[in-house]
User: Fold these one by one.
Assistant:
Number 1:
Amino acid sequence: MSALERIKHNFFDLEVIEKYAPSIIDGLWVTLHLALFIIVCGLVLGLLLAVVRSFQLRFINWLIIFVVDIFRALPPIVIMIVFYFALPFVGIQMSGFVVAWLSLTLVLASFVEEIFWAGILSVDKGQWEAARSTGLSFFQTLCNVVLPQAIRMTIPPLTNRTIVITKSTAIASVVAVPEILSQAGAAQGFSANTTPLTMAAIAYLLIFIPLVAMSRVIESKFAWKR
Amino acid sequence: MEQLVQNFFNIEVLIKVYPMLLKGVWMTLQLCVVVVPIGFLGGLLVAIGYSFHNRWLNALLIVYVDFFRAFPPLVLLIFVFYGTPYVGLEVPAFVAVLIAFFLNTSSYYGEILRAGIESIGRGQWEAARSTGIGRLQTMFYVILPQAMRNVAPDLTSNTLEVIKFTALASVVALPELLRMGRIAQGITYNPTPLIAVALIYLAMLWPLVRFLSRLERRMLVKQR
């Protein structure tokens, strides 16, 4: 067999593609669901934490910083493995899907909180004072004056971070979630052929290349003024 | 409470497995020391490539960068590890990890450094060139030092990400910290080693997270 034929046979085998396409597509749906839940919950929770932090209650702020730091420092795969393999020993049992969702939601929320908080800080103090002096309450100022300006500045880092965390859904294969990568791994085992991994790679690229290209456009559109 | 101590902070288990964990830490450190500089150098090449403003080269670099930014690192790693034997290359796990992480981190570093270089005004180039120093000299002595300062938070944040990625290497059985923790858990049938692994990662990475937060805050103050 020539080298080219061997590559074709091992990475682009049509029979294998035909046989395992349905299971990869099943995996694709699981990945998309997982990603959607993580993005929605992570963004909402992160924004909520940033708003709570802006009230400047000392004890609560310490708590938020502490938790957020932990989830920014730990590798997502470590968090998932601790949740999945260690927590059952103290009576907390969660399915792989819930573990993956919860871990990545907490990680995304932590980064999002930091990004929004930086955005809130970047709005000049004069904006607060001006808004409050017109008679708006603290909360109205936050929602109607500060956040709209803050969110605009935070769009590029938010998109980047969301993409990075969504890519981490592939790690869910380690805790037995039947998403793209774990379907492909199983198919690779059955067929003794790497073609399913090629299919998985193509599936991920189909999802993420448009997102990465979009983030490039967003980045230049919302670029920070230097 | 007793159950918690017994399962998560079991001293006996810890005494039994700590040599394994130390070995894991050592492997993780080795990985970091190799992966981070190589990825950074790759990124530097990408960014300098951009600065030539050659249309074909730029198109090629954008394809490279976007392609590997879209590839989840774990998928890339598994693809390299299980795929290379089929094309007749038998690479050890460590090398597979290096290849996969190089492709990923060089594209991220490349994108960050490119943004940094582009943030430096044209006047700096012209002034430096007019004093008679060459293109590459201008790049290394004038542009890059300022560019790196402008994107210092992004560089730090990406380095943090790269170090966190090294835990993925456990999936291809490279005996780094997470892998050793899982083996230790299997031997003792007690999750204490996993908790210890998490705490070791925290001890290594928390200072970097704090440093990053301070760096970001300082940039914010400057921008205002």
Number 2:
Amino acid sequence: MCAGVTRAKTGGMNGHDADGGEAAVFEEVVKRYGQVVALDRLGFRVERGEVVALLGPNGAGKSTAVDILLGLRAPDSGRVRVLGVPPARAVASGRVGGMLQRGGLPAGARVGEVLDLARALYPEARGREELLDLADLAGLTGRRVETLSGGQAQRLRFALALAGRPRLLFLDEPTVGLDVEVRRHFWAIVRAVAADGTGVLFTTHYLEEADANADRVLVLDRGRLLRQGTPSAVRAAASARVVRCTLAGATPDRLRRLPGVVDVVVHGDDVTIRSTDADRTVGALYALGSEVRDLLVTGAGLEDAFLVLTRGEAPVGEGDRR
Amino acid sequence: MLAYVRFEVVRVLRNVRFLVFTVVVPALLYLLFDGIYGDGRVGEVAVGVYLLVAMAAYGAIGAALSVNGSALATERASGWLRQLRVTPLSDRAWLVARLALALVAVAPGVLAVSLCAAVVGHVGLDPARWLALGGLLLLGSLPFAFLGMLVGLLLDAQSAQPAQVLLLMLLSFGGGLFFPVSVFPSGIRPIAESLPSYHLLVLGQEVVAGRPLSLDQLAGLAGSIVLLGALALVAWRRTDRAGAREARPEPGSA
């Protein structure tokens, strides 16, 4: 993987044009399953060269949006374009790469064979050595896929996604099973691929990863785009703060009723509160009557902002939505 | 598409379970039955010759059923088919490739039984007829390839395996591969004689005997190809091969 990064930085990794333009566009996309509305006029864009995180609680409509993006499902209404054409056509042309969460690997096949298959399927495939390098699979080509560790299998899925030099790269929970070191390399490769003019869309449950690696964050909730912007803008929009203190005899139920409080975690006397209005929360804390000690108010991470946003407590400014 | 067929063929040939059931078992059954009934005749035909066709057909049917049956159901469940659908391999190319794979997968069993027949069963056959038998068994496996595809598309990975074994048993016993249909009770015979496995057996016997192929048997086999092919195509269109169904949010949670 190191070698791949180096090569990417020197600019020789990818042959195709690095011009801008849209990698993916959703406009007013609606998808229903019977009575259930999975996507409710969802709209967003992913530009080429951009790394975008798609976030949302379970059931927000992420998997439906992804299925539609990859041409695996058709929307009921609305307009979807991938690289300027309908998703299925973009996929058929080999310009889309997908690393799927449930992308099983074919038992009985060797790593090298799976890579060669992928290279044969894409019209503008990367070389075998380049792929081995990028996904850090050198030395594993002879291994049967069922003998791979979770992290190795995940790297093979990454190689499959990169095999066709995609202009839109979709990564579903890409770093599950990867250790910290490999994770860092992984994101370096993703950045390099994006720098070459590929639009990257990824989902993750590790919100600090979205914070660190995404140019932009899309927060989905109940099938709609709740918020979008840079990770710091989304954090700010949620005006989330974390209040920590020591409080004897604190009960979560009581703390939850304080003004501005979105989320409460209590360990013994240690209290962590996520709040949209730290000033009032702190005031109310002192008014509880118990002794408040070691008070600390900090700006929230993306995860805190995410909780604030999707629990519906934050003021949702229309101006923040596009 | 060729790359995909080649990839799958390598996987199939590496699958010990598959090879045991579609190559070793038919060959052993040939040797066993030939050892027991070797000097006898089935109607006009020497047992060794009858068994050549019957056991080769048995292996062929098992192979065609399984490469698109439980194997497919497993790939559907694991998400590999979903991954494939995000590549430029088109649905149509995939379908054609799976059928081609079934025909290729039939070959090892047919070869093994033929070898046993030639070496142990002392079946001396004109090479042209032997080739014609091979060709017939390959093409005649199409209905079973379609049937396997139905199983693989409609059933989940757990039920596909037993369903496929049951079908193989019904088709091979029912079609007279183990006991000639002539010994069946008269009530069952019409059913047995309408099975594609029976058509394949009769046509095979005609090929090795050098007789002209009977048209009604050909029509029967062609009919089962059309019928099962149409059903498989409908199932293929309707089924969520990408496994997106499982990925769908639970009702109420979306």
Number 3:
Amino acid sequence: MTETDKSLLVVNNLSVAFGTKDNPFKAVDRVSFHVEQGEVLGIVGESGSGKSVSSLALMGLIDFPGRVTADELRFKTTDLQTLNEKARRKITGDEISMIFQDPMTSLNPSYTVGNQIMEAIEVHQGGSKKERQAKAIDLLRQVGIPAPESRINNYPHQLSGGMSQRVMIAMAIACDPKLLIADEPTTALDVTIQAQIIELLLKLQREKQMGLMLITHDLALVAEAADRVVVMYAGQIVETGPASDIFKAPKHPYTQALMNSLPESSEGKDRLNALPGVVPGANDRPQGCLLNPRCPYVTDRCRAEEPEQYGPRGRQVKCFYPLDEAGRPTV
Amino acid sequence: MLQFLLRRLGMVIPTFIGVSLFTFALIYLIPGDPITIMGGERGFGPEQRAELEAMLGLDKPIWQQYFIYLGNVLQGDLGTSYVTRQPVMSEFMSLFPATIELTVCAAIFAVITGLTLGILAAIKRGGLLDHTVMTISLTGYSMPIFWWALLLILLFSVNLGWTPVSGRLDVMFWVDEVTGFMLIDTLLSDEDGAFISALSHLVLPSIVLGTIPMAVIARMTRSSMLEVLGEDYIRTARAKGLSKRRIIVKHALRNALIPVITVMGLQVGLLLSGAILTETIFAWPGIGKWLIESIGRRDYPVVQGGLLLIATIIILVNLLVDLMYGVVNPRVRHSK
């Protein structure tokens, strides 16, 4: 699938840099992707790969000294880069909304959950207090909170983590967004609650035909939930494609390594297959392909030159030697 | 909430007993005794001295004196002044409004400017405004209060002639005492311009007295604001598309105020003790001046009673602050 004029979100060469002008650190480096209406786009990568920073940039939440640049940043027909602050805020939380990793700290401890949900409605849709309250109760019911009429008066510290995340979701869908960005929505939750929250998110996504950007490092989750997948490493996209293709036959050594590190693929062994090393930080980014110090198939060319995105639109891989169907490098 | 209230009230009693013991003991540490001072240069003979000691109850052992004193205090009797023969309580009550007026004005000055400067510094962190505010507050905090007062008097009263040097009201006005608060009494009276005169007398003492609390509040507000602005729920508020103003006033300030309120409560003690010095400098007829004079005369009941009353007020204000804390912070309210 490729982007069209009808695409919900089109991101072209988005970069986010921190640090000084002379010595910038690119947390996100020329990232391009698009989200269609009613589609789930999975964004996968280790910690530090730039997933969250990209999503914060889309929300307009990158502060000084962070610098956001892009060739194109379009939501429906609106160019997000030319909007002034006020017009941008009008879209944020209304048509594009976001839920975060840690629900317990993402809710304001001083206000009731009802107050915080009603605030989102008040700012974007208005209406009388009674209408807003009725809507907030309805939203809490939609996200599966029992006895919403009394829960609405609860403070965040009176809720469990799972309940808090449900409240966050209710707040995010309060204004019927077209695009919902979920940044590791289950990472901070108990394993037993994780599946429930994802199920809820997907159910709401289907019902409301939202575009959903599901940011996670949980590959198994993406394999199940996403239509298309973007794999990120050290601020760059290394592979994109339909979820089924990527999981059947990953083309980038990094994607392959991520999949090998799933416990299922280590069955019968004493240790899990791990990719040695960590994502390079601000001062130790290597020359050439950013993965080269960790890649099992590395060649001299990888150490010298940075590969481009190869392959047809919609199924691209940033590697000189993409893996074949059997998972062998085409060196 | 009721449990919280009771538990907090229970803590007041031992504090009160400790304070009474301390204020009682403290005065015996000052050299000199009231009878020597009453005798003046000629002094008393041993018989007269013993008679006076017995009359004032100073012949008993100190621990006995303390329990007699504590017993009287609990019945609301703080004793009578050795010098004026007036009950300490009634002297205190007649002077207290002047001190309250000064302290309240100083507190208003400290809270309004402290909060404003602290918030602005936090929002414009690292900028010129931030550095200016931090420098001012550090200077304000470290400057001796009497020197700061003299500087202000020199500039505004002596050179510019904008404000009066001392007192509560110009001598040309005669105002009946109704409440004891000059601002209110002058408004009630039919003297033209008396209110303005009372107000102008308040400006410098309030600024002098309020400077240290203002500096403390400004610094506390700034650091508390900065911490809160980095919280996840501020990001959530921004992701909702709220205006900057709303994020700061509704989401950040409310949480940032929690530690600031505690600090404000502690400043009340500083205000009342600072008032002693400020009142002396500006010849302000309040508790502070009265206490300083009584210490010079070794007027034990006045010093003990005055200190005890001030301490009680500080205890009560801090109790009030703790209760306010519960109102602002739902987590305190719900804790069992």
